């Protein structure tokens, strides 16, 4: 599952490739807690790498399933 997070005043979005067993509800809960408490949000990707972003600077979060629907090129 791929997560895309837009951060206020950041030129690029944060992309985290989560493990398949991670549920969208778990991700929503973690982000909502960080935004509500203006604290850091930590996510661990499928390779065990940890990514952190400030909850009070989140512009948007896109939760989706990566894979077949990803396109490359000019179509």
Keywords, separated by commas or semicolons:
two-stranded antiparallel sheet, 75 residues, alpha+beta, globular, single chain
Strand and helix layout:
Layout: E1 2-7, E2 14-17, H1 24-36, E3 40-44, E4 50-54, E5 58-64
Task: Write up this protein.
The structure is a single chain. This protein is of the alpha+beta class and 75 residues long. The chain has one domain (2-64). Helix content is 17%, strand content 36%. It contains one helix and five strands; from the N terminus they run ββαβββ. It has a three-stranded antiparallel sheet with strand order 2-1-5, with helices on one face. It has a two-stranded antiparallel ribbon with strand order 3-4. Strand 1 and strand 2 (14-17) form a beta hairpin. The radius of gyration is 13 Å and the shape is globular. It starts with a strand and ends in an 11-residue tail after the last strand.
Can you give me a brief rundown of this structure?
The protein has 1 helix and 5 strands; from the N terminus they run ββαβββ. With 75 residues, the chain is of the alpha+beta class. The strands form 2 sheets. Strands 2-1-5 form a 3-stranded antiparallel β-sheet, with helices on one face. A two-stranded antiparallel sheet has the order 3-4.
